[in-house]
Design brief:
The chain has helices at about 5-15, 20-25, 40-45, 50-55, 60-70, 85-95, 100-110, 120-125, 135-145, and strands at about 1-5, 35, 75, 115, 135. By secondary structure, the chain is of the alpha/beta class. Strands 3-2-1-4-5 form a five-stranded parallel beta sheet, with helices on both faces. Strand 4, helix 8 and strand 5 form a beta-alpha-beta unit. The longest helix has 12 residues, at about 60-70. It is globular, with a radius of gyration of 15 Å.
Length: about 150
């Protein structure tokens, strides 16, 4: 099953390498194919210093954890997403957070669920009738049922 992963999931995985999210990312390849737009790399770069500060780990260890997680995610060039899909994603995220548009667009383009820990995004999508934005508990439940 394809699952689009947003930045906050990766950030959570990096910050808690022994946590549920990291476990799901690293140990679910028999159930899920994780995908993300290349925009994820830009967001990780933006948050790099903050990650170093919050995690308390060395630069070398941070890079190791990032690389390990990113090996489990297929990155998709956002240029491959159709214009009409982008327009729909921008409309859906307009009053929530436009920075989430690449993830919503990729989910729409691939007809795949979006895994997020962003409660504001999940609630905003739910208010628009979107039922394919999933939280970590749902991802865990799906994996455990396979």
């Amino acid at each position: 099953m394809n699952i689009v992963v947003d930045t906050n999931i990766i950030l959570s995985g990096i910050l808690s390498p022994n946590g549920t999210i990291c476990d799901l990312l690293l140990n679910s390849s028999d159930t899920f194919d994780f995908l993300a737009p290349t925009f994820l790399l830009d967001e990780l770069a933006i948050h790099h210093k903050k990650l170093l500060t919050i995690s308390g780990i060395s630069e070398k260890d941070l890079e190791f954890v990032k690389r390990t997680l990113l090996k489990k995610i297929d990155l998709i060039d956002i240029e491959t997403i159709r214009k009409t899909t982008w327009e729909k994603a921008l409309e859906l995220t307009k009053h929530v957070d436009a920075f989430d548009a690449p993830f919503v667009a990729l989910s729409l383009e691939l007809a795949s669920p979006l895994w997020t820990g962003d409660k504001k995004l999940a609630k905003g999508m739910q208010q628009r009738g979107i039922d394919w934005v999933l939280d970590t508990n749902t991802i865990k439940r799906i994996r455990n049922n396979y």
